[in-house]
Design goal:
This protein is α+β, with helices and mostly antiparallel strands. 42% of the residues lie in helices and 24% in strands. The termini are far apart.
């Protein structure tokens, strides 16, 4: 028989109660075990919750770090873009300043005064020449080489005459050309003179009267192919080069004159579409502003056949 303790409790109202110690110990043990299980489960749940929270925090931390890296990269890209834009704006500003300076030179050249607050575009619109204006100028004003260009043997200006051996002013350019090289008109015009010029050393000479006060002289020719009073177009063959007159060898003496004043033909020989504006800086004896203003006002009228009519000035000269 197992030994056990019995606890007896006497109560006047409820009577006597007896408790076995063995049963109390069992209950206590069960309660303790239940408490331990509860705490263990609570601990496990807490650990799992904390673990999940830590993992979630780590994930958030990684996301924040990646977001920070992305933000820093975008910020750097933005800084680079701002720096590039500022540099581009600076370059554009310098370009606009250069355009404005160049435009001011053109305005001075053609006699236009811009208003203080006038926009750059409106200034450009006032000064630009259309392709038709340029074509008109290059058709009526001498330009290009009258012979296949192979160089200049004697330039415009003061020189020692190769035959007379004395210092004199040379009003044209002596262009290299073999005997009987085709000579072309350098602009539309009317032949003023075509023949042997006995009072000078030009020999066989052609003078063409062009629009706007220009004339061209072609000297030392071997053969003349046009007559005085005939109209010639730019590019027409008017003569063959030679050695007539006071000359020490075959070549073409070429002059460009404006209101009877000789100009340096070299600038006109080298003038064309590709370097259209250069002549305005090279040749200062011509009032280009007046000429450009006149050309800009020209409107070619079409006849009933759809062909452009000649300007009135050209018609009067062709009569």
């Amino acid at each position: 028989m197992h030994s056990r303790f019995t606890i007896t409790i006497t109560d006047n109202e409820k009577g006597v109660k007896q408790y076995s110690l063995n049963k109390i110990v069992k209950k206590i043990a069960l309660y303790v075990l239940a408490a331990l299980l509860f705490f263990m489960m609570a601990a496990v749940a807490t650990i799992l919750y904390l673990k999940e929270s830590v993992e979630e925090s780590e994930a958030k931390k990684e996301r924040f770090q990646q977001a920070y890296i992305d933000l820093a990269r975008k910020n750097q890209e933005l800084k680079n873009s701002i720096k590039s834009t500022q540099k581009e704006l600076q370059n554009r500003r310098l370009e606009l300043e250069e355009v404005s300076r160049s435009l001011a030179e053109i305005e001075t050249l053609i006699g236009i005064k811009s208003a203080p607050k006038q926009s750059l575009q409106s200034r450009i619109d006032l000064t630009k020449l259309t392709s038709q204006n340029r074509a008109t100028i290059l058709q009526f004003v001498p330009n290009g080489s009258p012979v296949v260009y192979k160089g200049i043997t004697s330039r415009y200006g003061w020189r020692i005459h190769p035959t007379l051996k004395k210092r004199e002013f040379h009003p044209g350019s002596d262009m290299k050309a073999r005997y009987a090289t085709p000579v072309h008109a350098t602009a539309d015009g009317v032949v003023e003179y075509a023949g042997l010029h006995k009072k000078s050393g030009y020999g066989k000479l052609i003078i063409i009267d062009h629009n706007y006060g220009f004339k061209t002289y072609f000297g030392h020719l071997s053969k003349i192919k046009v007559k005085a009073g005939s109209f010639v177009k730019k590019g027409d063959v008017i003569a063959l080069s030679g050695n007539s007159g006071l000359s020490n060898g075959p070549h073409l003496h070429y002059e460009v004159r404006f209101v009877q004043r000789p100009l340096n033909p070299f600038w006109f020989i080298k003038w064309g579409v590709d370097n259209f504006n250069e002549i305005f800086q090279k040749e200062k004896k011509v009032p280009w502003q007046s000429l450009i203003a006149a050309i800009a006002k020209i409107k070619l009228l079409k006849t009933d056949q759809g062909q452009p009519s000649l300007p009135s000035e050209q018609k009067s000269k062709g009569k």
